[in-house]
Design a protein that fits this description.
Elements: H1 10-19, H2 21-29, E1 38-42, H3 50-54, E2 59-64, H4 67-79, E3 85-89, H5 97-101, E4 104-110, H6 118-123, E5 125-134, H7 140-147, H8 168-177, E6 183-195, H9 198-204, H10 216-224, E7 227-229, E8 235-248
Parallel strand pairs: 1-2, 1-4, 2-3, 4-5
Antiparallel strand pairs: 5-8, 6-8, 7-8
């Protein structure tokens, strides 16, 4: 498969991150971050976690191999008035990545390439390592394609029949087998926003992908599946999923 140019989908990822903001905060609230901690976010993307973590930490270094993602991350941080976020344009896959990134109190990898090498991730943390992703539940990509069903040529992702057998339990067991005693919580997650009308929702969600005129009706039908009219007249968008947050002390792994 060709490598994805994540720069080209920065807008979509940032839009999805903003829909997930309230749920992301609940994830960050579970993380053992103090005002004295330095944090590194591996594969930070547009800053879904970087921004709320920076409100708790001494500093956050956002690491990404795509400059547009880093630019958006820094824009979002500055938009929140944060001055303790530092960008690092660096590929996690480089042989000298650990040296270039350096040591931090807390290392974080969420839905990113950082999760593919737990030992490497362990090497850059002194207090805790946190990893998180979707917990036997629809991923961001699945949800995006669901909104674009019948519009894009990309086929929808089908859930695996053995999804529960090959989910976060695999990561947990790997960490346990390396000598650590990981903790894990599974939290309700989702993509949510309140609108004044269905029309406002249709316009707001166009970052999901290109909607040609001939696909407009189908696009609106797809969005309508997740819209509800509240008693106060507002329109509520909610697409549910779940996320696990897992962490361990790096000193427990002796390799």
């Amino acid at each position: 498969m060709p490598e994805i140019d994540w720069n080209t989908i920065t807008e979509m990822y940032d839009g999805m991150a903003k829909l997930e903001k309230a749920f992301t905060q609940k994830q960050v609230d579970t993380m053992l971050i103090t005002k004295e901690d330095t944090v590194v976010d591996i594969g930070s993307g547009p800053g879904r976690l970087t921004v709320p973590m920076a409100k708790k930490a001494k500093s956050v270094t956002c690491v990404d191999a795509y400059d547009k993602m880093l630019e958006r991350c820094m824009f979002n941080a500055k938009n929140e008035g944060l001055e303790n976020v530092t960008p690092l344009f660096q590929s996690w896959l480089d042989e000298d990545a650990v040296e270039k990134i350096g040591k931090h109190d807390i290392a974080v990898a969420s839905r990113s390439v950082g999760m593919f090498d737990l030992i490497k991730l362990n090497q850059i943390a002194t207090k805790y390592v946190f990893v998180m992703s979707f917990a036997n539940a629809p991923s961001l990509r699945e949800i995006q394609l669901d909104f674009l069903e019948g519009i894009t040529d990309i086929p929808p992702l089908k859930p695996r029949p053995d999804a529960r057998m090959l989910d976060y339990n695999v990561t947990f067991n790997m960490i346990y087998d390396m000598g650590a005693n990981p903790s894990v919580v599974v939290l309700d997650d989702g993509f949510e926003r309140f609108y004044t009308s269905n029309e406002e929702a249709y316009e707001d969600l166009r970052f999901l992908g290109t909607i040609l005129p001939e696909h407009e009706e189908r696009y609106r039908m797809n969005v309508d599946r997740y819209l509800n009219i509240l008693d106060d007249g507002r329109v509520h968008l909610l697409r549910k999923t779940k996320t696990y947050v897992m962490w361990w002390k790096p000193c427990e792994i002796k390799l």
